[in-house]
Amino acid sequence: MNLDSDVAIRFERVSKSIRATRILDDVSFEVPQGTSLSIVGRRGAGKTVVLKLTIGLLKPDRGRIFLNEEEITGLAVSDLLRVRKTTGFVFQSAAVFDSISVAENIAFPLRYNSGRPESEIQEKVHQHLLQIGLERDKDKMPCDLSMGMRKLLGFARALAGEPAILLLDDPWNGLDCITSANLRTLLLDLKHHLHTTLLIVTGHINEVQHISDQLAVLDGGRMIACGSPDEAAASGNPVVREFLSQEGF
Amino acid sequence: MLHAASTSIDVKRSLEDPSSLGRLWSASIGLIRFSYRTLCEILHPPWDTREISVQLYEIGWRSVLLILVAGVIVGVVVAGLIGASLVSFGAIDMVIPAELSRTMFRQIGPLMTGLLVSGRVGAAVGAELAVLRITEQIDAFESLAINSFRHLVTTRVIACIIALPILTMLMSFAEIAGGFLWEAAYSEMSLRLYVGRAFDKVGWADYLLPTLMTAVLGFVIGTVACYFGYTVEGNAVGVRRAAMHSVVVSCLFVIAFDLALNRMMFFWFPGGAQ
C-alpha cells in the first residue's frame, strides 16, 4: 500500500445490490489525501453502503475500489486487515462493544494492533477520554451512556489507532448542538493538523458545509453531483437543487 | 418422462424458493463452509488465549452446577431402571453398580452432556453472536483490523472442545453418585462396596475414549452455535431464530455424532465393546 499516494480513496464504477435491490449504481469518485468528501442523500440512498465498501466490509458486485492506490476489491482477509489498520470507522449506531467498559473500548484496538506497553496504552486512553469529555465515565459500561455519548466513544475508539483515513457514518446523529460543534472542530483539527482524509456521509448538508472540500449527492444509488460545495450549489439537477434548498444551503 | 421433467422443475423451484428447500440447502452449504473455515483457523496458532479463558469460564465453569445436578438426577433414574430390569432377569444387586458405570461412561454421560451443553451454550452463543452482528459490533471488530472470526468464533469453539470432555467426566461421576443414592436407599450398600463394584469392570477404553470423543461434540456444538449467530441477518426475529436453530440443530447433530462416533470407536477398539 502506498501511503504517499495522492489519492486516498477511489471508487471506479462501483455497483452493489443487496437481496436483488440495487443499492449503488455505477458510482465513481475519489478523495485526495488530507481532504474531505461529504456524501449527502436521503435515507436509504446507499450512503452507509459506500462506507462499508470502502474498507471491504461489503464486496462490490461490479467496479473497483482503491485505498491509497491499492485495490481492495479482491483482497484476502489478512490483507484487508492490514489495509484497515490505516482507517477508522465511526458507525451510525456507534457499535461500541457493550460487554466491556468505556475505557476498555478505547484500549481494545490498541492492545490488539499497536503492540505498545500497557502504560502507554493507558496514557493514550486517558488522552482520548479527555478529548471527548468522558474521563469521568471511563469505568461505566456502554449501556449506561446516552446515544450521543456512545457516539463519542465510537469516535474515540476509531481515533485510537491514529487512522490516516477516517470514515464517519452520520456522526452528528444523536448529538446536542454543543457537542456537534465540538465534533466539527475536532474533525477540522484532524484534517488541518494531522492531514487525516475524511469521508463523511450524512443526511444533513448544513453539518458538513464548513468541513467539506468536496460534496457529493447520492440519490437512488446514483451519484448525481460531486464537486466543490460551490459547484454543488450551482448544480442544475432538480434533485440536488431541492436537497440544497430544503437544507437552506 | 413428463413426470420426471415436472419433478425436476419442482426441485429447481424449491431450491430457488428462499422459504423452503432452497434455504435449507444454502444453510447446509454455509454450515459446511463455516465448519471448514473454523477447523482451518483452529489448526493455525497463535490463538487468543485470553478470550479462550474467558469463554472457558462462561461455557465450562458456569455449566458445572447444571451438569452435576442433572447428572445426579439422571443417575438416580437410570439406576432405578437398570436395577428393576436386572432384578427381573434374576441378577443380584451387586452387578448393578458395574452395569450402571459402564452405561454412564460409554453412552449416557457423553450424550447427556452434549445435549445439556447444546441447550445452554448453543442458545447463549447463538444469541450473543447474533446480537453482535445486528448491532454492527462484528463490523466494528473488522473495521478495527481485528479478525472477528478468530476473536469470536475460534475462541468459542476451542473453549467448547476443551470444556466438553471435562464436563462429561463430571457428568459421568455425578451419574454414578446418583446411582449410589438409589442403591443406598434400596439395598443399603456401603459407599466403599458400591465404588469397588462400579469401577471393578470398567477399563480405560470404557471411559477415556467416550470422554475424549466429546471433544468432537464440543466442536459440533460450538461451530453450529457460532454459525447461526455469526451469519444472522435482520433484527430481533433473527436473534430469536439464531438461538432456536443453534439449539435444535446442535442437539440433532449431537445425537447423530454420538451414535456414529460410538459405532466407530467400538469398531476400531473392539476391546471396549465387551
Helix and strand run of chain B:
HHHHHHHHHH
Q: What is the mean pLDDT of chain A? A: 90
Low-confidence stretches of chain B: 1-15
Compute the average pLDDT of chain B. Answer: 87
Strand content of chain B: under 5%
What is the tally of beta strands of chain A? 10
The poorly predicted ranges of chain A are: none
Which descriptor suits the 3D outline of chain B? Answer: elongated
Order of helices and strands of chain A: EEEHEEHEHHHEHEEEHH
**What global shape of chain A is seen?**
globular
Quaternary state, please? heterodimer
State the CATH class of the domain at 1-86 and 197-249 in chain A: Alpha Beta
Kindly report how far apart the N and C termini of chain B lie. 53 Å
What helical percentage do the residues of chain A reach?
Answer: 25-40%
Which terms summarize this structure?
heterodimer, A: 249 residues, alpha/beta, Rossmann fold, six-stranded mixed beta sheet, four-stranded antiparallel beta sheet, 8 helices, 35% helix, globular, B: 274 residues, mainly alpha, elongated
Write the layout of secondary structure elements.
The complex is a heterodimer of chains A (249) and B (274).
Chain A: E1 7-18, E2 21-32, E3 36-41, H1 47-54, E4 62-67, E5 70-71, H2 77-84, E6 87-90, H3 102-113, H4 118-132, H5 147-160, E7 165-169, H6 177-193, E8 197-202, E9 214-219, E10 222-227, H7 229-233, H8 238-246
Parallel strand pairs in A: 3-8, 3-9, 6-7, 7-8
Antiparallel strand pairs in A: 1-2, 1-4, 4-5, 9-10
Chain B: H1 2-16, H2 21-42, H3 49-60, H4 64-88, H5 96-134, H6 137-143, H7 148-187, H8 191-200, H9 204-230, H10 236-268
